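for the writeup, i need someone to sanity check this before i put it in the appendix. the sequnce is what the collaborator sent (i think, or maybe the updated version? ugh). structure was predicted straight from it, no edits. if anything looks off just tell me and ill rerun, i have time this weekend
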Amino acid sequence: MFRFFSYFKVKQDSHIVNKAAYMVIGIGLDGNKDVLGIWIGENESAKFWLSVLNQLKNRGVQDIFITCVDNLTGFSQAISACYHQTEIQKCIIHQIRNSFRYVSYRDVRMVTADFKPMQIQSSTSVIF
């Protein structure tokens, strides 16, 4: 299961607010990719994703074998609540970005410069 999102601005009650369109893509055992749904939300939370996962389950998604998650608090627990045997992996890009907080300020530029080629490589080799 893959999750993608895109932010956009919309006028709501005479105010401009940010919303996000979240798309969930699944890859079947036969290798075919299917868009499982698109949801509109104001913010990303574990509660939001729990409702999405419950909707997917009610629509017939029987199992999720592997999912890659960012470090959204409670998201792994939401997946485990709906799909008990799912293998949950942390996204390597998010892990590396989160490790930057342990780099001293004077070394940040050097470390991030080394990271950029890897980030460009990973974004150009996406399977979609």
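Residues 2-90 form one domain. Strands lie at 2-12, 15-27, 33-41, 66-69, 87-90.
thx in advance!!
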